[in-house]
Amino acid sequence: MENKNTILKIILLILYIINYQSCRAQKRGELYLTYKVSLYYNEVIDETKSYDSKSAVYEIKQLHNYDGYKSKSVIVNLTQKNIKEIYDLYLKLQPKSLHNCIFTDNNKLISSSIISFNKSDNAEDLPCNTNWEDKEKYYKIEAKLYELILPTYRLKYPDEFIGK
Q1: Residue 60: beta bridge partners?
Q2: Buried b / exposed e across 39-54, counting CB within 10 Å, b at 16+?
Q3: Weakest-pLDDT range from 19-28, 45-54, 93-102
Q4: Which of 41, 50, 73, 85 has a CA positioned 20 to 30 A from the CA of residue 60?
């Protein structure tokens, strides 16, 4: 009887390991996307918008005069198909960088926007797109991302879209 219990425990352990390995192998093939845009006013971050497909959280943080930052967030579950669609657009357009910046005439940063796929390094260290054609390519990729995120955000915060 004791021998049967030992064999049963070994079989269950082997099944667990096989199941765990197959789950890890599936996760390795997944495509992840992160997005962040920072808007500056007087060299201070006035607003950030971010999305991380691992957590599925789209968040907007806005600086309020005396209250500090206030945030709004919504869960946006982009599918692997959605993320691949954005990634395929990136591969098709091939901008030099997935970091876009907007500067004032006197060279002060007013907007910094980053899209990243499966990156563990700091995407903010990427150089900003410098030529207009690359900026336009980036805007098309960013527009595709918003096309997928905004319908869910609108459902939770419809007042922000009244009159627009």
Answers
A1: 49, 72
A2: bbeeeeeeebbbbebe
A3: 19-28
A4: 85
pLDDT at residue 65, as a whole number? 79
Kindly calculate the radius of gyration of the chain based on its CA atoms and give it in whole angstroms.
22
Which of 4-8, 44-48, 79-83, 112-116 comes out lowest in average pLDDT? 4-8
Q: Which candidate, 73, 62, 58, places its Cα nearest to that of 146?
A: 58
2, 21, 64 from 143: Cα distances, Å? 64, 37, 27
Contact (Cβ atoms closer than 8 angstroms) between residue 118 and residue 88: no
What length does the chain have? 164
d(CA 64, CA 56): 25
**DSSP helix/strand/coil, 32:** coil
Phi-psi region of 107 (alpha: psi -120 to 50; beta: other; left: phi over 0): left
Write out pLDDT tens, residues 131-150. 999 999 999 999 999 999 99
